[in-house]
Amino acid sequence: MHQLRRLPFEDLGYARIDSHRCVRTGVSEIIYCAGKTVPQIVGIAQRISEHSHNIVFTRASAEVFSAVRQAVSSCEYHETARIIVVNPEAAQRTGSVVVVSAGTSDMPVAEEAAVTAEVLGNRVNRIYDVGVAGIHRLLHVCDDLFAANVAVVVAGMEGALASVVGGLVSCPVIGVPTSIGYGASFGGLSALLSMLNSCAPGVSVVNIDNGFGAGYQANLINKAICRSQQAPAQSSE
What we know:
Blueprint: H1 2-5, E1 10-11, E2 16-17, H2 21-25, E3 31-32, H3 38-48, E4 55-58, H4 62-71, E5 75-78, E6 83-86, E7 94-101, H5 107-119, E8 122-127, H6 135-139, H7 142-146, E9 150-155, H8 161-166, E10 173-177, H9 189-196, E11 203-205, H10 211-230
Parallel strand pairs: 3-4, 7-8, 7-9, 9-10, 10-11
Antiparallel strand pairs: 1-2, 4-6, 5-6
């Protein structure tokens, strides 16, 4: 109890690395790179790489990856998703998460969600550029939607795709509004409000452009479903 009251972390002066998070939550601390200097990110990468695998650095530029790669030999970069994975380790992927994007312009946010879910050990199916302007494209892949445990729907403009998918599937839907769109979209606010006001039940919404948050939440839902399917059936006697 004495040790648990004082959960370990390492103070670097500019960051306090939570090396115990993987024990508590099953996932290592996620490092958000935007706003940090390159030396700060490199310093964090060097220290945290000593404690865990599959450490995710989000919103990382190619410049940041180049610096991290020189300091930490084992890392990989997902350019579209802007994600660095330090100490990547192949994990058995389970269940089914489907990531759906309305347009090709939404792919950076969709890939952030997809890569996050994959690194955390989920089987991910990508369905991109199936927005409501050509609804037949979405209807063509309904079987893939029906097979998913959770759907992440990424859309800008008016954000209508989340409601459409929510009206088709029986699984939870996580809407991700993006800042893609013309002036009246107000940097994603229109899509955010549309998704929040969805008439389709079962649609929850993360913040604008928050692909990481959607991928993490999809991981929690998918893993919970997988655990329930693997649990032995209890006798009625």
